[in-house]
Each structure stands twice: as C-alpha cells, then as structure tokens.
Amino acid sequence: MPHVSRCLDNQPIERFWGAFKTESFYLTKHDTYEDVLEDVGKYIRYYNNFRYTERLNGLSPNEYRRAA
User: Fold this and answer.
1) Side-chain half-sphere of 66: how many Cα atoms within 13 Å?
2) pLDDT tens per residue across span 8-65
3) What is the model's pTM?
4) Are 30 and 15 in contact (CB under 8 A)?
C-alpha cells in the first residue's frame, strides 16, 4: 500500500476474527495449539464457502456463485 495505513484498512480482517471468536473459538475447548490451528482452518473454509450472508441475499458464497 503506497499510503499511510488507515483504520478502514483493517476492517475486513477485524470482522473475520471477531466472527471467528464469537462463532467458534469461545465455544470450543482447545487442548493444544494444533487443535486451534485445525479449528481456524475449518472456520476459514466454512466462512469462505458455506456461511450464509445477508450481503449475498441470504445465500452462502457457494450458492451465490452457482446462481450467478
């Protein structure tokens, strides 16, 4: 990025981590660091492919791509 960072630059990733913590991390007991990494990987796949989103007219990203 050629400009000085602005607070809006972090908005998408802050939204993702906020959703991850409330929807997955705080609801699961993790015994090891590897469990946390596995949980993050599973949630990223869920978030990017199957999570229903109001912004996409209530469809998951996969359903939205198929309909397009």
Assistant:
1) 7
2) 678 888 888 898 999 889 999 999 999 999 999 999 999 888 888 888 888 888 898 8
3) 0.70
4) no
Neighbouring C-beta atoms of residue 8, cutoff 10 Å = 7
Give the list of residues 6+ apart from residue 1 with CB closer than 8 angstroms, or none: 9
The Cα angle at residue 66 between residues 63 and 53, in degrees rounded to 5? 25
What does the block give as tokens for 29? 């007991």
Alpha-carbon gap, residue 25 to 2, rounded angstroms: 34
The four Cα atoms 43, 44, 48, 52 give a dihedral, to 10 degrees, of 20
Residue type, 19: A
